Amino acid sequence: PETIGIIGAMDEEVELLLAGMQNAETMDKAGIRYYKGTYHNRNVVVCKSGVGKVNAAVTTQVLIDAFGVSKVLFTGVAGAVHPELNIGDIVISSECLQHDMDVTALGYERGVIPYQEVSAFQADKDLMLLAQKACGELGEVNCRVGRVLSGDQFIASVEQVSWLYEHMQGACVEMEGASVAQVCFMNGVPFVVIRSMSDKADGSAHANFAEFTVASSRRSHAILDSMLAQM
Ligand code: ADE
To answer: Domain Nucleoside phosphorylase: where (predicted)?
Structure first.
């Protein structure tokens, strides 16, 4: 039977998953702790990657190589980029792109990785549909399918967030999704990123992030919980 890899970047994002796991065994690799067990009777490996693209990339490759996961789900919070998104709303990735990949000096558009065909990594259609269904079941939750932008930067200004919307068509911005997506693409493993908005990546982002991360993580987890019950 298949094993599903589940990643969050921070404690708030994975602790609810760990609390819902059965028979969890732990294994440490490259400084990350992996929890292998079951969740709603599915075989899962849950882990906290830490923040940023390198942490998320290494964690994803370990999930694939050492644990043989055949799907990867990412749960957590993000800054809202699309102007219609509010704190607490959900973004389900259609695709993920690294907004801080910048080779514009050589004539490439922002986000484009030179010398390779793909820079926007497509999420798995079935996982996206399942996430949308799970989101619908939560009731009064605004859910948008869209492009997840990732970079090793916490975005906290109107200028930056407006730019990411206008020039890179982002739905939300975070710090891991596109590196998970790229590693999944390189290995032929399907993935989806589910993010609940903790802030609007503007001048209030630091205060909002501190206030809303727990509640938003809870909401992202609720979607994963429902997805895992139906996989
Ligand atoms: N994660 C949550 N909010 C974020 C922001 N404003 N920028 C980057 N990552 C985030």
So the answer is: 3-228
